[in-house]
Amino acid sequence: MTIKSDKWIIEQSKNNDLIKPFEASQIREVDGEKIVSYGVSSYGYDVRCANEFKIFTNTHSSIVDPKNFDEKSFIDLIADECIIPPNSFALARTVEYFKIPRSVLTLCLGKSTYARCGIIVNVTPLEPEWEGHVTLEFSNTTNLPAKIYANEGVAQMIFFQSDEICLTSYKDRGGKYQGQKGVTLPKT
To answer: 137 an active-site residue?
Structure first.
């Protein structure tokens, strides 16, 4: 299994729709203003957070149950910035839509800019032949409110290609998050 380079990521995005929309270089500034970077890096792709957020709230004193999730546990927000309460979390999605090849597994790691502020990004692996917008979970591990910026870099995707094709892909088994658009809550 090998990690894939910027050359491979660019080729796959241009020829096979790996990532859409796609930036073939690191974007660090928009309209003269510095931003948290996104786009292709040496061995990965830095994704952006869209402006759709679901902020966790305990207003209804619900139990967080992945088998019976209460959608009222979130406040919906569409904005250029999201303030995550102390010791809480928010869900968002990537701007980018992914189509993962059958021989590839993709891992997501948070960007150091956010990690150094106590914000942890969590995403499960993007499995072979999975496609969709990636739902991102931002955990604010601090005792202070934390800010996430929409349309700026938040995490890096790293692509690993196997030396053999898997027997059963995510698409083959009809994965429940296949083709997801928008921020997707837990499904059973």
So the answer is: yes
Q: What is the identity of the amino acid at 33?
A: E
Beta carbons within 8 Å of 85's beta carbon, 6+ residues apart: 55, 56, 57, 140, 145
- Answer yes or no: pTM beyond 0.90: yes
CA distance 178 to 3: 24
For every residue of the chain, DSSP letters joined together read: -EEPPHHHHHHHHHHH-SEES--SS-EEEETTEEEEEEEEETTEEEEEB-SEEEEE--TT-----TTS--GGGEEEEESSEEEEPTT-EEEEEEEEEEE--TTEEEEEEE-HHHHTTTEEEE---B-TT-EEEEEEEEEE-SSS-EEEETTSEEEEEEEEE-SS--SS-TTTTT-TTTTB-S------
List per-block mean pLDDT (blocks of 10 residues) for the chain, which spans 188 residues. 95 95 93 94 97 86 74 90 95 98 97 95 96 97 96 97 96 94 87
Active-site annotation holder among 52, 137, 152, 164: 137
131 forms bridges with which residues in the sheet? 99
Beta carbons of 110 and 155 less than 8 angstroms apart: yes
